[in-house]
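WARN no homologs supplied; continuing
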Amino acid sequence: MSKTPSDQVFREPRDNVSDFRFDKTVATVFDDMVSRSVPFYGEIQRMVVELSEDFAQPGTNVYDLGCSSGTTFAALNPVLDKAVRFVGIDNSPDMLDKAREKFAALNFEREVDLQVADINDRLDIQNASIVNLILTLQFIRPLRRERLIADCYRGLNSRGALILVEKVLGEDSLFNRLFIDYYYDMKRRHGYSEMEISQKREALENVLIPYKLLENRELLLQAGFSSVDVFFKWYNFCGIIAVK
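OK structure emitted
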């Protein structure tokens, strides 16, 4: 695969910063953007693969809701049984085009179904041993999140797992401010300028709406999941696994 272009989406000053969209401009640089914007992104993906090896079952579907450029499926492909079918859903055709390019370059030899759909709408999830929501639920309108988690629960087989990775709010306002400061320090270490950080923050303000970790946990428990635990936590990012 060719090297991913560097993320320079917010490098130039803008008179008006519009809401963030996963369009072709973002899709082109997305892999670089997410690796520099999400703490320990590579380790999170490794942990998702590790967890998936214990829950994915041959003859079932593994879903990735908001699959973007297909990074999670690319990581899962070498380790999961070929009788596991991948189903990726995203509302951005440009992202799915990038995923198809990635899978072709990796010579995928399994059934992969990529669908353009709005996850805010009702989803028909079937025969799932795993449903991934990797940095996706935070972009779903809050009033639709309960229904989305219910759709995931309904479509999972017994002992199936939902893997959720989210940006979260601190449980206390003091820690929330500190954690956000530490997060922006990380972005600076990864080469983002003050302008890039500021303009992206403004673009995401009405698009990415995080919950607290305990609010996400309660959402999963109310849906009926029998076991829920945190497998990753870094300041204002977390990973949660829930088992039906």
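The chain has a mean pLDDT of 96.
OK
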